[in-house]
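Section: Multi-chain targets

For targets with more than one molecule, the full set of components is provided together so that the structure can be written out for the assembly as a whole rather than chain by chain. Components appear in the order listed by the source. The example entry contains two components.
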Amino acid sequence: MALSEFELIARYFYRAPAHDDVELGIGDDAAVVSVAPDHSLVMALDTLVAGVHFPADSRADDIAYKALAVNLSDMAAMGAHANWMLLGLTLPQLDEAWLDAFSRGLKSLADEYGVVLIGGDTTRGPLTVTVQINGLVPQGQALKRSGAQAGDLIYVSGQLGDAGLGLQLALRQIQLDLPPARRDYFLQRLQRPSPRLALGRALGGVASAAIDISDGLLADLGHILDASGVGAEIHLEQLPVAPEIIGLGQQGWSLPLCAGDDYELCFTVPPERGALLEARLRSVDCPCRCIGRIETHSGLRVLYNGEKVETDSFKGYRHFD
Amino acid sequence: MALSEFELIARYFYRAPAHDDVELGIGDDAAVVSVAPDHSLVMALDTLVAGVHFPADSRADDIAYKALAVNLSDMAAMGAHANWMLLGLTLPQLDEAWLDAFSRGLKSLADEYGVVLIGGDTTRGPLTVTVQINGLVPQGQALKRSGAQAGDLIYVSGQLGDAGLGLQLALRQIQLDLPPARRDYFLQRLQRPSPRLALGRALGGVASAAIDISDGLLADLGHILDASGVGAEIHLEQLPVAPEIIGLGQQGWSLPLCAGDDYELCFTVPPERGALLEARLRSVDCPCRCIGRIETHSGLRVLYNGEKVETDSFKGYRHFD
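Its structure, encoded as tokens over all components, is:
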């Protein structure tokens, strides 16, 4: 098979630049864009490998969706608007039906958030999808991991553990008698996470630190604590968790704490900005819940109804051994 | 094997941002950089797959060098300065000696051109290297493929076909009695191409179109012709080619014309800018040679000492069937 790069791009991915800020899109040696004044450029890259990050027989549109969604989630965690993406697509063969579905999955999510595909590379090899995403944030407003201070309140968006339960359902690692609609809900949360871009932007000038929850709350909140040189206390009973996960008892707590893949945001807010946060949250349709507080003393302490919980026992819990 | 992303990055790739324009480097959800005013952002991405773009047992420093060099070449072809890169590295296992060599290969070339690694992703899977490169160009000065006009002169930099001969030597597809130094020269041209960044920047406001020669002169000049809606005539005897390739006779012409991997620049210049071009070329240490002229009539005509040459006969010649 000779994978003809230019035919492939022209057939499936080429669209004329839809935005004024794209000076030159797909079809040259590189893309050229203009960056709005008084903004900083925010850049991330994530790779998904078949057989590692998704089963090799996953639907192509689901693969494309997720490859972009995890990158958009990084933009959300920085408080950025996502503008442009590049795609590195490695394919074992030229399968037109697969490519058609892939490009539709990518386009649907890109269009929803106003992201333009401006370039990339297609190569032959084991199925691997790399999305490189570029966004803008007003200068000085990027949400870093390193700004949390003792006394700040810790919040999470949405609901945690849904994607982890979805994965266990998909892999038949758990027996749960669920109505089809609920089963579909958890699978969707795994395959089609909603990047919290509006929330991230609403947190500019409000949150002192932020991260997206890709590896589980304990690991990702741990990154904020490490980067900020602080500790924290969180309260399990305040975690936003589906009733089905509550029903699993103690074993269920590993899902919100360690399973990851939720792509919700975890962020910290100084208490004096509480009213500002409330006002900002009203402008975005994304529930957030306070789950604890940043402390001077390093380490992460997890309480359940006031009692200390040993987090070592949670499956998949690696980063705080 | 659990590939611990953060340990890996910290050990091999982390370096504090060396440039004022890097607001936030490796270690957050995304990198943040500031773009100089009155400049456009130029972005490209190229993927190299083991067993496809390089033998799986290639030296790690050579793989890293080439993965970055081909991206720098795209910046050169746009007339841009290369500033920041992201790395997507998929590895079958955590091999410290390999990673150490890879990071040294990447760093040596990055330092030579002042490029900073600001982010990326490491994943487990078949060996694949994606470099995403970002550069800046003064607004309106990007060198596109689409600006060539009838009457413009066609130039190429350096020497064409060296990398193609290097590949044939590496694969033992050709028997040539070469002195060791000459053999090494051709292998180096294959494994360590010199991206023509200084030349590309010198061509800003001079060249009407430009491309880097990655797929061979016929294919890449063809892209300029297609994008510009013009044709051209080139003269084989004017091509800058090594004497060893000349010695191969007619069979040798497929190397400069079709083998690719030279990463020289092909560009067009309106004849009235000839003196300006000469002045600019004196400022960069890179020989360039005029090989032909753009014409109104579409298609690419190849002459040798005034006689038309049938290019269909050249091996690997696909794009002008």
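Residues 153-313 of chain B form a domain with the Phosphoribosyl-aminoimidazole Synthetase; Chain A, domain 2 fold (CATH 3.90.650.10).
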